[in-house]
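One record is given unchanged without comment:
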Amino acid sequence: MRQLARFLLVGGSNTAITLALFVLLQQWLAPAVAYTLVFALGLAYTTAMTAQVVFGTRLTARSALLYAGWYLLVYAVGLVVVQALHSSWQPSAVVTAVLTVAVTAPLNFLGGHVLFGSTPGAGTAPHPDPVATPGTIPPHDDLTRSPA
């Protein structure tokens, strides 16, 4: 559940930052250029933050490329959702956005979980040594060891 909360925080901050930059950059750049630049910056931000903050794992070049590819695939799925909604029905912009995000956000979380969250110990702090922690029972093999 904590990963989901962190995912929502990273996604929300990415949306807020890229929206503000998109609006700002349009003062000097064509909208398409501003969108492309902001999308690339947002992709870099969300890739790094998803690995490190959401799933607590180290970002590698391989995992970054895989996640970026997954993110672009999910972007294409979102375009299909938008096209499907508008070919059969003319929903409002808010309904379109909500339904598109309802499809794409879980897919982005799933991709992040598969790429970053499936390694042992991902997203968790290392466990302390039970022998060194007062009030804990040492592992079985430590019980049979003779004192040094």
Notes: Helices lie at 2-25, 31-54, 61-88, 93-116, 140-144. The chain has five helices and no strands. The radius of gyration is 22 Å.
